[in-house]
């Protein structure tokens, strides 16, 4: 019955089409889709001017329970609330300094290392859109308070992203290096007992480790003299392997 009616309508429309006729509902729907796509694109564009957390940095479902059990010390306001223009450090790095995806875990790093990185972000010897905005719009006191808070925390293995690396291959690279490519063993510097001097990689997010290795290799992170040489001869696959190995180290020591 309806079909017949539709057919009739169609015939009618075709026969007596006039330019001032009311528009067909189908082009209107297309228009709505087009306009929404345009709006979404505009929002993305506008968003790139403001430091947005990566999609993974929102707290995952299993996190609150784990974090609640940690009994964290009281955090300064800059960590929990930020200031008038900067988001809280915790909105990206987490209240336990656990980080997420390409946002690093800050727990387990030393005050000296954290301070150096903030200075580097300020002086643009290390560049990142989010962190440039954070250091430009936070006071020295706020930054000091934040890093002293994070430096006292133990790193927590709460992020389980998997990049497809093989930890066993990564272990070999970490412990023996890749001499034919001029890569010394990573653990000669990144060992737990040397964590005062070198950033600790145990339990760091694999996404982040991997992103930094690629950044060192391709001249995107230039705030250190040795790391770029250390990774020049590594393939992306080897970087994922070693990222997975270091990520898993903290789970084993639990
Ligand atoms: C909008 C998200 C965001 C906010 C807010 C944020 N960070 Fe970051 N932070 C990042 C990202 C992303 C990186 C990784 C940068 C890179 O890839 O080089 C980072 C890196 C860092 C590093 C370097 C860590 C390392 O292992 O080298 C430090 C230190 C740091 N942030 C401290 C802070 C502090 C302190 C605050 C609060 C005052 C803060 N961040 C707020 C996103 C954020
Ligand atoms: C000769 C010592 C040395 C060796 C060997 C070394 N590193 Fe590093 N690495 C450093 C130093 C120093 C830094 C900190 C640079 C800075 O101040 O920003 C660093 C930084 C890093 C970072 C960034 C950490 C962060 O929190 O941002 C990663 C990831 C890393 N190294 C991985 C590796 C891997 C993987 C290897 C082995 C293939 C390796 N390193 C070998 C000294 C070394």
Automatic annotation (TrEMBL):
Start and end residues of each Cytochrome c domain: 77-250
Checking PROSITE patterns in the record gives:
CYTC (PS51007)
InterPro entries hit by this protein:
Cyt_c-like_dom (IPR009056), Cyt_c-like_dom_sf (IPR036909), Cytochrome_c_Oxidase_Subunit (IPR050597)
Q: What is the top-level taxon of the source organism?
A: Bacteria
Record's Gene3D superfamilies?
Cytochrome c-like domain
- Please verify whether the record's keywords include Electron transport: yes
Q: Which controlled-vocabulary keywords does the entry list?
A: Electron transport, Heme, Iron, Membrane, Metal-binding, Transmembrane, Transmembrane helix, Transport
For this protein, the parts annotated as crossing the membrane are 26-46
Identification of the protein by name: Cytochrome c domain-containing protein
- Name the source organism: Marinospirillum insulare
